[in-house]
Amino acid sequence: MVEYRAVAAVLVVSHLLEREVTARAPPGPLSPHRVVVTTQGSVRGYFAPHPPHYSYLGLPYARPPTRYDRFKAPEPPPQWSGIFEAIHRIKCPQPDGSGDENCLVVNVFTPEHAETAPVIVHIHDGGFQSGVLTNTSRIFRPCIERVVSEYHNLLDRDPRDVLREGKYQHVPLMIVYTQAEEVDIILNDHETFQSIVDNIEDLLPANLIFDSSDVKYKIIKLIKKFYFDDIDTAGSITHSLTDYINDVFMEYPIAKSVTYYANRNTYPVYLMKFGDHHTRLQNDRNAGTNKYNKICRYITSDKSEDSEDLQAKKLVMLWTNFINFGDPTPLTSPLLPVIWQPVQVNEIHGQIAVQKIPCLQFDESFTNILLSGKHLKFWDSIYDKFYKTNIEKLN
């Protein structure tokens, strides 16, 4: 039986570089290359067969501030009179010194017969920390920038306040999360992390500020009791540490953010916990989670194992439905047998509760769950008391 549900046909993706790129595919048989005209100049992309598409690599969308100007706002993109060969594979500067500061570019991939069409934009999120579980985010972290006339501010308000007030562009949202990347590092190196519990202070979130050292160490004591009180083996320590890392840097921030969005957004908000049964963790809390890059591989790769093919088809159909209708499951089908329920906000004593959050568990089960647990309550109580906005300090 097919289950129907009211849908609003809202297209949430926009035209990439809508004002800069306007292209039409030439008629006739496929060419090994294609030239399109943009407001910056003509661009030549090249055909790739698997799957059939044209790629345009390294298109500048701004002139990057470099050297002494690197903390200033970017300048408008350059223009050219000839044809720009879009074959440049560029990466931004890396910790090992490789890369190029001139990296304000986009790579565009179009279907073989595309004309004007909506696009999916992938923006890499970055890190704000480096090393193996070395919390440098207290030095290099996002902050609220003070208003100075000659500078362009990226953040002039705390994003949490913006979400609370609903002062953002309202669109349908689909939020997908996996395990924190550090989890794999810990699970693959039990010995290295046996002593890290004694130094858990170094792994406290950077946006928790305590009034005194006494208060801080009381909170650390509570954290140790919550996560590490009953450990008796090296394996227990490792799994407790993965729980801690995943909770504080992934699941709680996601859960809190999604409740803020759902409370104010005039469109539906969907939450997915992505898992892959081929690499499932052994501890229950982290079961059903996996790396973000696995999701991208499922969606973009044309080479997958037979056992992964069904998962890939499900993800592609969910994404396609969401792009077309603003709803990942407007109706059920043999491929998608469950309607993905949008997030509904629960309140306790007039406060938004980070409990019983509707969530699609994407693994071999493909089922709706309610995201809940003592760990969410635990961190919500800490953040309610000790959260503090990071504000830029001026010398």
Largest sheet features = 5 strands, mixed
Instruction: Output the radius of gyration.
Output: 24 Å
Summing up helix and strand content along with how strands pair, one would put the structural category as alpha/beta
Number of strand segments: 11
Distance between the termini: 67 Å
Q: Which regions have little confidence, pLDDT < 50, spanning 5+ residues?
A: 1-27, 129-136, 277-290
| C-alpha geometry | globular
Give helix % range: 25-40%
Give the integer mean of the pLDDT values: 78
User: How do the helices and strands follow one another from N- to C-terminus?
Assistant: EEEEEHEHHHEHHEEEEH
Contiguous helical run count: 7
How large is the share of residues in beta strands? 5-15%
Describe this structure in words.
- This protein is of the alpha/beta class.
- It has helices at 159-165, 182-187, 213-228, 234-264, 292-300, 306-325, 374-386; strands at 33-37, 42-48, 53-60, 83-85, 105-111, 173-177, 269-274, 346-348, 351-353, 357-362, 367-371.
- The strands form three sheets. Strands 1, 2, 3, 4 and 5 form a five-stranded mixed β-sheet that branches. Strands 6-7-10-11 form a four-stranded mixed β-sheet, covered by helices on one side.
- α1 (159-165) packs across α4 (234-264) and α4 (234-264) packs across α7.
